[in-house]
Amino acid sequence: MFDINRKGFASVETHAQPIVSTEFECLPSVLLNQFYAKPIEVLPVSHDQLLAVLSNNAHYRERFGLTQLPVHFPALPRAFSQSLFPKLGVVSWKDVVGMQTIPDALLNTADYSPVLECWLNAISDRMALTLHAYRCSSNTPKLYLFPNQDFRERSEYRLSVSHGEIQGVNCYCSRRDYHEEYLEEIKTWWSSLEPFETLPNLTHIFVDIAWCKARGAYVIIDVNPNLYLLDQEVERRCV
Length: 239
Prior knowledge:
This protein has 239 residues and is an alpha+beta fold. It contains 9 helices and 8 strands. A hairpin with a 2-residue loop joins strand 2 and strand 3. Helix 1 runs parallel beside helix 7. The longest helix is centred in the middle third of the chain and has 12 residues, at 125-136.
């Protein structure tokens, strides 16, 4: 999503609130209802825990003069029998090798705080840069534990949405279920949703979706701000 350089930080700092506003629990209910699944567990993250998380990325730590600290997370009262897809606020571990999901084999005890701590102590440059938005907006993220869903057999599409209306659709991952009629299908699906109020922080967004065979409908995988269009609006205001 970003490069961890001066330009990347400038973009995050300018659009901190729109970035934070795409966190799962911040989204309008009409979008939440279309997600592939609800999180099994939602855990608060304190300001000190967020700083500790960020301090474990070397580039971020050096840039802001942080002292590296381990992340401590309390044990939880229950175990899980399925693998989980974790997200810290708006970011996942998709670019950290071997950490895209938490295997169920590591979750067969109620005291799995060391597992969560392992994940929180390993964040990429992309994650650190994006999480910087929380510091800029004086917010803290939540740790979401979603049931892991395998979309490897499903094509994935990205909708560019402005003011609640589709501006374009792109298939960014074509798989066996791909077909030429997807564009009209997706437009029909989107138009069937209830309109939602596009607050300033959700004026320009990307909505990633895939076909869910079990539900017989498209489902939302992720929502992100469209920083390109947000940057254009800032430039117009500065002219």
